[in-house]
Amino acid sequence: MLNIVFIGTAGCGKTSLTHVFGKWLEHELDAEISYVNLDPGVHRTPYVPSYDVRELITVERLMEHGLGPNGAMIRAAEIIEEKISEVSRRVYDLKSDFKLIDTPGQMELFLFRPMGPRFVEEISKHVPTVSVYIIDPALASTLSGLAISFLLPMITRLRLGVPVVSVINKADLPEIYKVEEFSRDLRNLKEKMVSEEKGLIVDLASRFIELVDEFSKTIRIVKTSAKTEEGMDDLYTLIREALCECGDLM
Ligand SMILES: Nc1nc2c(ncn2[C@@H]2O[C@H](COP(=O)(O)OP(=O)(O)OP(=O)(O)O)[C@@H](O)[C@H]2O)c(=O)[nH]1
Ligand SMILES: [Mg+2]
Question: 2-172+220-243, superfamily in CATH?
């Protein structure tokens, strides 16, 4: 049994990748999958959730009672946090080979509030858990955006305390070439970033790239696309490698 938690910035493709990767696991490994929706704001999911947090609350319902979209998201997060033990237990109780967990559109609701860390702590007590950080080419196709995209998985690792693997998603889009070009040579990236910035920021940018460079030596990033369904086998290999490294052999 394995929990896989999909995380990433709004619109990076969490819901689509959860669905397509689940289908791949079903077909290729003949595995039984539970899909979990933790996004109170989603209208429709492409998969049929085995557990759906919208049983508790939806952003839509809160907005009908007068809250604006952001206020409703925050209130929904508070309501889920009050019941996080129940939510975690419901997910924990699902019996399947893989539990694929789709998280709220706004990453900060899951990562930077108590919801994500507490949920992951509960579900990972006796079941190996990996987080898949999804890099969106819309952010990663500029120099500073790529640097930030490399940093966010590290932040995810710090917040959730479980192994994190990274994928560059929407590999079918033309921007992916830019991302590949930048990430091929991080030293080049450092020089470019330093030449594009001025003053104190040069030192910051330079140190930042050194950190990312150091980190990226220990990680491998794969390309995925929910549209073309490429990269699912690479993602599975990456997840297995992450588990082997931390001793949680599958
Ligand atoms: N080209 C392309 N578009 C994609 C891919 N995956 C998702 N999308 C599109 O990106 C948009 C967001 O996809 P979702 O799967 O809903 O992303 P999400 O991260 O769950 O979005 P939120 O939960 O709303 O933050 C949709 O318009 C998808 O059709 C992909 O691999 N390639
Ligand atoms: Mg989504």
Answer: P-loop containing nucleotide triphosphate hydrolases (3.40.50.300)
